[in-house]
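Session log. Operator J.P. requested a structure for one protein chain; no other inputs attached. Running the standard single-chain path with C-alpha cell output.
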Amino acid sequence: MKKNFIEEITWRGMLHDVMPNTEEHLMEEMRGAYVGIDPTADSLHIGHLVGVMLLRHFQLSGHKPFALIGGATGMIGDPSGKSAERNLLDEKTLRHNQEAIKEQLSRFLDFDSDAPNAAELVNNYDWMKEFSFLDFIRDVGKHITVNYMMAKDSVKKRLSSESAEGMSFTEFTYQLVQGYDFLELYKEKNCTLQMGGSDQWGNITTGTEMIRRIGGGKGYALTCPLITKADGTKFGKTEGGNIWLDAKRTSPYKFYQYWLNTSDEDAEKYIKIFTFLSKEEIENLIATHKEAPHARALQKRLAEEITVMVHSKEDLDNAIKASNILFGKSTSTDLKDLDEATFLDVFEGVPQAEISKNIIEEELDIIGALVEHGGFLKSNGEARRALKENSISVNKEKIKEGYKISRKDLINDQFVLLQKGKKNYYVLRAI
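Structure written below.
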C-alpha cells in the first residue's frame, strides 16, 4: 500500500460515515471500491468532484477504483418527478454521455495503464437490461424485507415530508437497484467497498446487506459529507446553474472565478478536498492566508490547482489574464487575445449597445460613440469633460478628444470596450 486511504481522507475532511473494520480491510491488500455517477448529461459538474477525488485518493493508495455509470437508473429518470435534470434517456444518449464522462474522469483516474489497480468504468445498464421484473423480484427482492427498507432514513423522510403525494413504487425500490449494483460488482469484480455522499448511506448499506444475504460475503460502506457553503447557498451552483467540467458549458474563466470567489472559511475546507496538495503545504498556505487575508492566497492557489486539473495550464493562464482585465493592469493586446465566449463572460452584466458595423468602417468620432450611438454618457458636454480629465479609455487605452473608432479597434471583429474611470465599462457591439 502506498498510503492509508482512511487516514488520508479523514484529515482532508472527506469522511462522514464508515462501516467498522473498513480501514483494516483496506490495509490487508489491494481492494476494489466504486462510486456511482448519474449519466444524465454529457459532462460532470463540480458536485461530482468529491466522489471523483475519493476514487483518485483510493487509486493513489494502491487500490482499484470503479466509476459506475448509472445507465439503468438514468433510464428511469427521477422517479419523484421533481428533478428537471434527471430526464429519461435513451440508450444512444446514455452511451454518448458515458464516453464524455469517461474522458473527463481520465484527467483524474488512470484507466489505461497495465497496473493491477487501473481504474475501470462500468455501466449498470449492461447487467440490468436483461433482467425481467419477475427475475428481479424472485432473485433479489425476496431477500430484503419491506421492514428493512422502511427503516431507512431516506424512505422515512420522503414519506413524512410529502405524505400527501406519497412515494412511488419506483422510488421505494431504488435502493434495491443500487444494492444489486454493489452485489454485481462484488461477484464479478471483487469490489468490496461502495462510497458516496452521506445521503446515500441507506442505499449503500442495502448493498452490503445483499452481499451478506445473497452473496454470502462481506461488503463495506463509506460516505463523505455533503459539501456546503458557509453562507448557506448551494455548493456548485450559480445563478446560471451548475458549474460544469466541460469548457463549452462553463468556460475556464468562469470556472476559475467560481473558486477564486469562495469565502475564507470555504477556501480552507475546499483546498483539502479539491486539491492533492500535502498536509504540510496546506497548513503553510492557511498560515500565510491568515497573516494577509486580503491577498487571498488560499483562494488563488485553490483556483489554480483545480483549473489546471480540470482544464489545462494554458486555460488557467488565459483565465488569469481575463481576470486581470477587470481587476488588474492589462492592455488592449490582452483584450484582443480573448475569444468571444471569454470576452462575453468577463463583461457579463456590463451595459451594451449595438451599432452598425458600417458606422465603424467609416470611423466613428469618440463623442458620437460615447453619447449618440452608445448612450454610455448622457451629453456631449459630459463626454468632453471626461475626455479633458483623461478618464476615457477605448480597449483599456486612454484617448483624447478627436479620437476616431475604426475597424482596428474591434475585438473579435465585433466588440469595442469603452471605459470611464476605473470601474465604469460599456460595450459597443458592431453588427
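Operator note: The two ends are 62 Å apart (CA to CA).
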